[in-house]
Amino acid sequence: MNKNSQRGATLIVVLILLVMVTVIGTLAIRQSVMSLNIATNAQVQQLLTQNSDSALLRIEDQNNVVRNLARDGMFGYIRGVANKNKELVFCYRADQAKSNFFKIQRASIVEWRPGDNAPRKINIGTEEGFCKSSDTSANFFTSGRKAVMTQVSVKFSSIPSEKPFQHSTRGTYSKSAKIEETEKVNVYSVSLMPNLSSASASEIDNCLSLRMNEVSEPETETVVTGITPASRQSLTACLTGLSIPFTTQVSEYTIVQAFS
Fold it and tell me: Which UniProt keywords are listed (predicted)?
């Protein structure tokens, strides 16, 4: 009787030990997975930030400033009152040489015209300027690993300055002196990793080509009917809705005519 009782107690002890080992192993696996996710998220965020920074550093390169202000440059092309609500868009591609960072032939315009119920895209050159996750024949990625896409948008701000003459050149009067008006331009560098998202390639491409970073609705007296909330959605809001890993960096520049 005692022998049989001891055998039963041994079985219970072994079962309890197995349950404890299973619980400890499960907790260890969950902790490892959580640590891996945290490390992956940190690496993804760092990679996205580096690619966005790389595009902005190319724009700020002293060798490119004069070229960007030319009539076919990224600033010069859309500079002026007629283009204040338009965004010039191009994809920062790895297959472009440093000297070909921006080409007007590889750029597009996103604008919201009076009478339209949503922004539209317009091609400037022979190719669309938007990054395309659906096109596998061309390299729209920033690096050779084909992990990160970076799309750059240039827009002369239509938002009024906080202070009158905040960005004006001091000591000059533009009406009597033959100088160009000082203007503020915003550059948006949006980097994303489409392969880490469950969204379809067409959904990602629609965000990149039909959404503005700074949404500017037409200035018309008549009310445009049929405008949906999605039409007023910014590129950042669109990518967020698709749960796409991305980062948006905004740099603000003031174009001033300098006198020596």
Answer: Membrane, Transmembrane, Transmembrane helix
Q: Please state the separation of Cα 194 from the chain's center in Å.
A: 12
The answer to whether residues 11 and 18 touch, using CB atoms and an 8 Å cutoff, is no
Domain count of the fold of the chain: 1
CB 131 within 8 A of CB 242: no
Using an 8 Å Cβ cutoff, are 51 and 142 in contact?
yes
215-240: pLDDT as tens digits: 888 776 555 666 777 778 899 999 99
Domain residues for 15?
A: 2-255
Question: Residue 216 in contact with residue 158, Cβ under 8 Å?
Answer: yes
Classify residue 10 by its DSSP letter. H
**Exposed/middle/buried for 27, CB within 10 Å: 0-12, 13-18, 19+?**
exposed
| DSSP helix/strand/coil, 9 | helix
How far is CA 251 from its chain centroid?
12
Q: Is residue 42 part of a domain?
A: yes
List the structure tokens of 22.
Answer: 């299973």
Report pLDDT digits (tens) over 182-217.
788 899 999 999 888 888 999 999 999 999 998 888
Which one-letter DSSP state was computed for residue 212?
Answer: B
Domain assignment present for residue 139? The answer is yes
Q: Position 223: which residue type? A: V
39: in domain: yes
Tell me the two tokens of residue 131: 């990054």
Place of tokens 């907790």: 27
Which two three-digit tokens encode residue 214?
A: 């700074």
Question: Could you tell me if residue 260 is inside a domain?
Answer: no
Q: Which residues of 184-217 are buried (b: 16+ CB within 10 A; e: fewer)?
A: ebbbbbbbbbbeebebeeebbbbbbbbbbbbbbb
The tokens of 126 are what?
């022979």
